Structure prediction request, 468 residues.
Amino acid sequence: MMSMTRVAATAAFLLILSVLAAGAAPYAAMVMDARTGKVLHSRNADTRLHPASLTKMMTLYVTFQAVEGGEIGLDTKVRISRHAASEPPSKLGLRAGQRISIRYLIRAAAIRSANDAATALGEAISGSEAAFARRMTATARQMGMGKTVFKNAHGLTQNGHLSTARDMTILGRRIIYDFPEYYHLFSRRTVDAGVATIRNTNRRLLTSFTGTDGIKTGYTRAAGFNLVASANRGQKRVIATVFGGKSAKRRDDRVAELLHMGFDRSPRHAEVKPLPAIIWNEEAGVMLADGLRGLLPPSRPERLSRQIAEQTGTGEIDDAVQVAVLESVEAVEAQGAADVEVVSPEPSPVALTTVVIGFPPPTPDRVKEDYRQSRLIVRADASGPRNWSVVVGYFWNSYEADKHLMAVALRIPKSGSSVDRMVELVSHKGSERFRASFNNLSETEAIKACRRLHSENEYCEPVVLTKT
Prediction:
């Protein structure tokens, strides 16, 4: 007969197990072919859960967007607020009043998952973390992340701050395709964050699974161990997302299994489906159809939603109101698209020409055919003379040209207008080469860019452009 001591011990053990089971974070997963967006596997993918530091993917996406749009510069130094400095770990250890550049905050948020850095980014871009979170949510809606609401920039547990495995997979795909020039950051094992050299929280999977090059880990007690990871093998690129892992190792092992599944289930050849552009600036945030950039509406949705809030007496901007305002500006899409002309089939070395290259890169033969078939002529910015380009190299294939553009993109001055990357098939020294350049620059920006690249022994040629 079991002694009372053993009975009590067994009961206590079972009670502990039941408590742990009750407190376990729910599991959810998704696997996606990144080229097409096709879902290859899902489980509880639409269940709203705590995203933890996966949130920082959107923090960084909006930051990249702000840098590209000229709202803030990579070398802009921001003053750390008391609020940002007081965020709990994981953190970089920033002090209130300290000044640090945006590029170091980006690195800290991406690599170390630093909460203080994420909050500082939000405050620097939107004035407050709450306003930045509203922008994050509005951007999520434009991407089709219909079940995600952000309440902060770091992902620590907060009432109403929720997402899904599907939505976070969509966001991971967006970072890869929309900001390939920044995406390489997520694969770094260590990086200089200004005040310290930091190590990647995702280095175990980056080291153990061939082809993995990002993206983001996350953990809180409420969320469990989360991860969005992407890997590239040959012409295939797969994204796998896990919510609610029981430990970092078990989460990583499960993601590796899902990535293997994704490579097995995805076809060898698939056409990369273009994503519609996500545009936000001081005047408006609006998604334009087919990825084309056109005229922006004259009123800022956040400003409009504030007006609505004041008129209705609510005194605050509700997420639903913000989304409604964003939807209300869809009528300008036709006006924006009217400023874009597709010219086919005769190629031309005209400067105001841009061709979007898929990621991962298509084969050189396919790219050559694409270049010969069509051109996208983008209207010059009406705000001033932006008819300069900088040529940064000539390459035998489009992949190397696009790769070089990504490598030097951070050294090209950003302005309020879009600075477009361009890869174009041209005749150079008696043979066909892929010319890599940046266009839609002012004369000052072009000269400044080349001076900087020349100082680093990089090729750069400023060229004044004419539209035909």
